[in-house]
Amino acid sequence: MVRAHMVVSGFVQGVGYRYFIYREAVAVGVTGFVKNLWSGEVEIIAEGEEWQIETLYEKAKIGPSRSRVTSVNIIKDSSKNEFTKFEIRH
User: Which residues are catalytic?
Assistant: First the structure.
């Protein structure tokens, strides 16, 4: 199991980006959360199998149609198994 910390930059707040990531994360079966940062970026913490994390990462680079993703920085680590579901945090 892998833990990924992603920070998404671009026009990603106020365009349904968190809800997009939530739907994609639930569909692929990862646990963790997505939340807006004060910097205007979006943070994603996800835990799952390598293929699940890669699938979510690829979706994060695209985002919903109204978003404009300029970069997704990702750091991978060992899973900490601290989540039971994926959620949107505020």
Answer: 18, 36
Neighbours of 40 (CB within 10 A): 12
CA 62 to chain CA centroid, nearest Å = 11
17-28 vs 50-62: helix axis angle to the nearest 10? 160
Residue 84 is classified by DSSP as S
In the chain, the amino acid numbered 33 is F
Name the nearest CA neighbour of 74 among 50, 20, 82, 16: 50
**Domains in the chain and their CATH numbers?**
2-76 (3.30.70.100)
**Spatial distance between the Cα atoms of 52 and 11, rounded to a whole number of angstroms:** 25
Q: Give residue-wise pLDDT tens across range 26-46.
A: 999 999 999 999 999 999 999
Q: What is the pTM of this model?
A: 0.97
